[in-house]
Design a protein that fits this description.
The protein is an alpha+beta fold and 257 residues long. The radius of gyration is 46 Å and the shape is globular. Helix content is 35%, strand content 24%. Strand 6 and strand 7 (237-243) form a beta hairpin. The chain contains 7 helices and 8 strands, in the order H-H-H-H-E-H-E-E-E-H-H-E-E-E-E.
């Protein structure tokens, strides 16, 4: 008698199929969870990348910028730069220029002396050559000492001196009226302190190079010597008022412009 293989019942087949589907579903879910976990771990371990564009003005730009540029206060003003350019060019000191000026006019005294650049007027030689040493004017823009000396009656002569060679290249009488002469004559009588004494008092207070000395009156009608001293460190200019009778320092002002 031949044996016959039995087919499993339909119910058993349904159960088997259901179990198989469950296993496949669980496997798929497990793989999905594993993938999500891997992505999360990768996000935690990967360093953040700065995506700021070159035009952003936030911290990304700040960190890529080098040292800050110098502030405006660290640079010199136009006047300071001009002093730095002019003062070292003058090879003749104020006292040598003053001595030269008073020798040009007999019995005169210094009333004004200033270091400046030679003007177009001076190079045109509108005045008279020096009677003692006639010399050509320096080129326009070159350093010169412009001096003014006065006789006891208040008559003023202007003396232009080359600040490099020390030679006089022009002398000229100033245009004055009677009142101007008398006022200056009275001021000369009050000034018992010489310009040398005034400068000594000023430079004893402030160190530097003297670029201007002038006999004047202050607001209280007191005769003073106004002395400008330029610092060769900062190129600031300090103006000191020296009592022309006592030699005391009455006031001082620093010009940092």
């Amino acid at each position: 008698m031949s044996s016959v293989r039995r087919l499993p019942p339909l119910r058993s087949m349904a159960v088997i199929c259901a179990l198989g589907s469950s296993v496949l579903l669980m496997t798929g879910c497990t793989n999905a969870d594993t993938a999500r976990s891997s992505v999360a771990e990768a996000a935690q371990t990967t360093p953040a990348t700065n995506t700021a564009s070159p035009t952003d003005t936030g911290t990304a730009t700040a960190t890529s910028t080098g040292s800050a540029s110098p502030s405006a206060s660290a640079s010199m003003t136009d006047d300071q730069a001009e002093r730095k350019a002019l003062v070292p060019q003058a090879k003749v000191t104020w006292d040598k220029a003053a001595d030269t000026a008073v020798k040009e006019v007999p019995d005169s005294k210094l009333v004004d002396l200033e270091l400046k650049r030679t003007s177009a007027e001076a190079t045109a030689s509108t005045g008279s050559p020096s009677p003692s040493t006639p010399n050509p004017a320096p080129s326009q823009g070159a350093p010169e000492w412009e001096a003014k000396v006065a006789t006891s009656d208040g008559t003023v002569h202007r003396i232009d001196i080359d600040a490099v060679s020390g030679k006089v290249f022009r002398t000229q009488a100033e245009d004055q009226d009677t009142d101007d002469k008398q006022q200056l004559a009275d001021l000369l009588k009050k000034a018992t302190q010489t310009p040398e004494q005034a400068v000594k008092a000023a430079t004893g207070k402030v160190k530097g190079t003297v670029t201007h000395v002038e006999l004047d009156e202050n607001d209280n009608q007191k005769a003073i010597w106004s002395v400008d001293v330029v610092s060769t460190d900062s190129w600031d200019k300090t103006t000191l008022e020296v009592d022309a009778a006592s030699g005391d320092i009455l006031n001082q002002h620093v010009d940092r412009d």
